[in-house]
């Protein structure tokens, strides 16, 4: 009797059950890897957006603190203590802290504000004072 070739009775392009069993679950692993990658990208994006938001808050707090402090500096005839105290209160009202408060030329005031965030501290600086102090 003549033996049938090994591929006899098989449909082209269809693997037998033994070959398919070796790959069972590989789709699940691929889906899990894809989900993990999406979660990593989402977490990184969240941290970046949080850092950007913290910087915007720090800049706003520094701007307002510098304006409030410069107004007090002018009203108190150049007394730095009360001006920096007002700047600190203004920054605190905007959920920030003042890490630097220095007098500038022509009665201006420089303020550095810090906002604490998950991604780290965001720092911003601002200067406020009379127009002549800005050189323009």
Quick gist of this model?
The protein is an alpha+beta fold and 136 residues long. It has helices spanning 17-21, 26-75, 80-93; strands at 97-103, 109-117, 120-128.
Please describe what this structure looks like.
Helix content is 51%, strand content 18%. It contains three helices and three strands. The protein has a three-stranded antiparallel β-sheet with strand order 1-2-3. A hairpin with a 5-residue loop joins strand 1 (97-103) and strand 2.
Placed side by side, the strands forming the largest sheet appear as 1-2-3
List the uncertain runs: none
**Helix vs. strand class:** alpha+beta
Helix content: 40-55%
Strand content: 15-25%
Distance between the termini: 106 Å
What about the largest sheet?
3 strands, antiparallel
Protein name: Pilus assembly protein TadG-related protein
Region (Disordered): 1-20
InterPro entries: Rv3654c-like, Tad_N
Domain Putative Flp pilus-assembly TadG-like N-terminal: 25-71
Q: Descriptors for this entry?
A:
136 residues, alpha+beta, 3-stranded antiparallel sheet, 3 helices, 3 strands, 18% strand, rod-shaped
């Amino acid at each position: 009797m003549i033996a049938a070739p090994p591929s006899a009775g098989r449909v082209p392009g269809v693997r037998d059950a033994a070959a398919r069993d070796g790959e069972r679950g590989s789709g699940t692993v691929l889906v899990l890897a894809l989900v993990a990658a999406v979660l990593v990208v989402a977490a990184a994006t969240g941290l970046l957006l949080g850092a950007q938001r913290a910087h915007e808050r720090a800049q706003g707090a520094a701007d307002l603190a510098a304006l409030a402090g410069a107004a007090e500096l002018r009203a108190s005839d150049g007394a730095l203590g009360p001006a920096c105290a007002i700047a600190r209160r203004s920054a605190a009202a905007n959920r920030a802290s003042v890490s630097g408060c220095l007098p500038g030329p022509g009665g201006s005031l420089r303020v550095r504000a810090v906002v604490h965030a998950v991604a780290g501290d965001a720092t911003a600086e601002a200067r406020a004072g009379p127009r002549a102090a800005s050189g323009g």
